[in-house]
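Human: Respectfully, please carefully check these C-alpha cells:
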Amino acid sequence: MVNTVSFRPARHATPGRRAPLRHAPERRSTPAMAETLTTAKADLVDLAHRRMRTAIPDNDWTTRQKLALTCRILFEAGHDSGLAGQITARAERPGTYYTQRLGLGFDEITEDNLLLVDEDLEVLEGEGMANPANRFHSWVYRARPDVSCIIHTHPLHLSALSMLETPLVVSHMDLTPLYEDCAFLETWPGIPVGNEEGEIITAALGDKRALLLAHHGMLVATAGVEESCTLAVLFERAARLQLLASAAGRIQEIPAPLAREAHDWTSTAKRSQANFAYYARRALRAGHGDAIGGGTVDRSTVSGGTVDRSATDGAAVGTTPEGGA
C-alpha cells in the first residue's frame, strides 16, 4: 500500500516584490479619564448654563425689529388667522407699547409700519389704528410689570383644542416650558374689546406665562420678545400633539419633579435667544427680509442676530419697506 502525504507548497515572494513584514501589535496607551464623568447632574446643569451664557451671542436687533420678525415667524408657524391676533412689546416710554396696524396681516408687518400706542390705544407714532382688542394687553401690562411682550393669536390646533373646553396637557419633554406655566380660561367672555375682558383675562393668566382661552385662542406673556415668540411657537405644537395623542388613546402623566426640572432647564433667556435667532434665520431665508430693512436678504448674509444690510442695498430695486412694487 502506498502512503500518500499531503503537503502545502511553500509560498514564494513574487519576483520584484518584498514579502510583507510582520509587525508587533501596536501598544495603545489608556486614555486619561474625562474630568466630568463623575460630576453630579446639578453641577453639569450649572456648567451648561454658564457655557451657554458665553457661547450664545446676544443679538443686536431693536425691539421694533424683533417684533416684526416675530410676526413673520408666527406667520410661518401657522399662527395667522386673517387679521385676528395682536403682538405687542413695551416701548421705551412708560405706559406705551408697539403693536401692528389694524388691516395688516402678520406677513405684512415691518419695523417701519408698527404703531406706538398708549394704554388708551391712541396712536402716538405711525399711521392707521391699532386693533381694539389690544385693550386687554394694557390690563396685563399694568398687572404684570415683569411682562414686556404679549402675543395673542388664534392658530389652528390651539383654536381646535379651545373648542373642547379642556386645559393643555403637558406630557412630553419638549413641551415642559409650559409645565405648570399655562393657565386655562374655561369660559368665553366674548369679544375682548372691553375693560371687563381685560380684567377677566388678566385674572385668569395670574402669574403664568401662557393662557389657553376656551373658544378663542392663546395668550403668551413673558419678559421679552424672544421668549414670547419661542413659547408661542411651542404652544401651538403642544396643542397639536395633545390632539394627536388624544385621538390615539389616553395621555399619560409625566413625573412632576422631572417635569419641573425640565421646565427650568429650558426656560432661560439664552435658550430663548438661541431659539429666536434660529426661527428668525429661517423666516429670513423664506423671504421675509423686508420685515427689517426692505428688499430681499441674501441667504449667505443671514447669521446670528444680524443681517448684512449691504447685501440688501441695491438688491431691493422696485420694492418699498412695505414689500409692495
Q: What stands out?
A: The chain is about 35% helix and 10% strand.
